[in-house]
Structures are given as C-alpha cells and as structure tokens.
Amino acid sequence: MSLARIGALGPQLRGWFTGRRLVIGIPYFWLLVFFLLPFLILAKISVSEMETVHFKDLITYSDGLLRLTLKLGNYVFITEDELYWRTYLASLKYAAATTVLCLAIGYPFAYFMARARSSVQPALLMLVMLPFWTSFLLRVYSWKGLLSENGWVADALIAVGADHLLAAAGLIPAAGKLMHTPFSLVLGMVYTYLPFMILPLYGNLAKLDLRLLEAAADLGATPWVAFWKVTVPLSKAGIIAGSMLVFIPCVGEYVIPELLGGPETMMIGRTMWDEFFSNNDWPMASAVAVVMILLILVPLAIFNKYQAEAQERGR
Prior knowledge:
The chain has helices at 3-16, 19-46, 73-80, 82-115, 121-129, 136-147, 152-159, 162-168, 182-205, 210-218, 223-234, 236-251, 255-260, 268-278, 282-314; strands at 50-51, 54-55, 59-62, 65-68. By secondary structure, it is mostly helical. The protein folds into 2 domains: 3-68, no CATH class; 81-280, MetI-like fold.
C-alpha cells in the first residue's frame, strides 16, 4: 500500500476512535472479554464429555464427516434430581430475603444520609464503607464467634428472649442455637451486602429535588404521604440498582453459607463447589453454573425490556 493511501486512511481511522465510540466500546469490550467469553467456555464444558482430565472435542472430522457432539445429559439430570431444584430455590429464597432486609434497613439509613448536613455526609459515607477496609473472609468469620455459645450477639439475643421468637418463626431449630441456621446465614449476608444497598440509594436520594416535597406540602400532603407519593417513586432507580447489587451475588454466594449456614441451608454455590472439587465432575458443575446464570439473566432481561417500554410510554 502506498504512503499516500495510508495517509488518506488517517482521518477515517481517527473517525472510528472518537470519544463517543470509545466510551461505548470499552464497556462492551470488557463485557465480551470478562463475561461472554468465560460464559461460552463454561457452556462448552457443560455439554462436553470428560475423560480423565481432558474434554472430548465437540466438533470432530473423520472419513469426510463433520460431527457435532453435545452431551445434554447434565441438563436433563438437573431437571430430574430434586437436590438441584431444592438448592436453586433455597438460593433464590435466601437472596430475596436478604435483599428485602437490606432494603428495609438501608433505605432509612440512606435517607438520613441524604438529608444530613453536607459537613456530616462524608463521615457517614466513611462509616458505610469502613467494613470494606477489612477482609471479607475475616468479617464473615467473626460472626462465628459472635453467634456461637457465649458470643456477645448470642448472649444479647438470649438475654432479651429473641431466640424463642426466632425458634417460633422456624429460623433456628431450638432456643439458644443460633449458629448454622437460616438466621445466621441471612444475618451474615445482610451484614455483608448492606453497603451495596445503601450507596446506590444514597446517590439517588441525594439528587432529589426538595422543591417537589415543598410543592406536595403546599398541596396539603402530609410528610408520610409526600414520602410515599414523591420520594419513593423518584428513588425507584436507586432501589432497583441496590436490589440487583445485593440479589445477584447472594444467589451464588459460597463463603457465607459455608461458614455460617448449616446442612439445611444448602445453596447452589456449595453444590457447584462439591461438583467441581469433591466429585471432580466439571461438566456437571458447569451445567449447574449455566442454569444459575440463566435464572438470573432471563428475569433481568425481561425486567429491563419492560422498563424501557415504560420509559418510552412516559415520554
């Protein structure tokens, strides 16, 4: 190619690397490399047949024939085995309970932070992010000591009789037994993921136009009515973002159920661990992971579709 031709291509190449294309292209490239490609590798393993430490090729060519071999038995087995459905449902149940509790606790806290004096807000933000300065594993493991016999939290709950209420609600098997129960599992997940709910809510509520609340008050709305009719609808984006940030990692959580949960709190993360490292059945573990990802992505895609349609109708 001549130098003149290369020089003529210069403006065209620069046009491709404009700021807009870079801003849009870099996140898509990141998703392609760090999400789509690993997911495709996982999907490939899930339909492969394993022999010792290797996987058979999906596409083979011999005697002039091109063969595509997909092993779907792992997915069929998931639909037939009750263990997998129970762990999937348990994961969704505990993730939903954690999300609701984080929203119930985090919304008042985020609202208070957004309405606090500007000089106090940085200190409140630091308090929310302070747990991240300590190892995640260390923070979860500390709850074992707090909830075990003679632990501070366990002694406080027993002293006020809260353990009897938890036992009556079925969250613990008996009064005084707080560890390795659904209660300890959900408590650990709420403690861990609460900042992921507070921060998006705070960012949304801090931008709320207070003149809308003043207008509602001028029209006769009480503070409670103004909160439900104005503040909550306008903070819906923060509620959705915080809920997704909590719910999605909770579904596949492994460390917290392993340290704080018990046999009756089996979640899909522990099932995948057993398939990968105990049974050494990588195709089965990959199939379990693919189904878990689809259980999360399909509802999210449907929800985003309806959200986009609702926004279009609102314009």
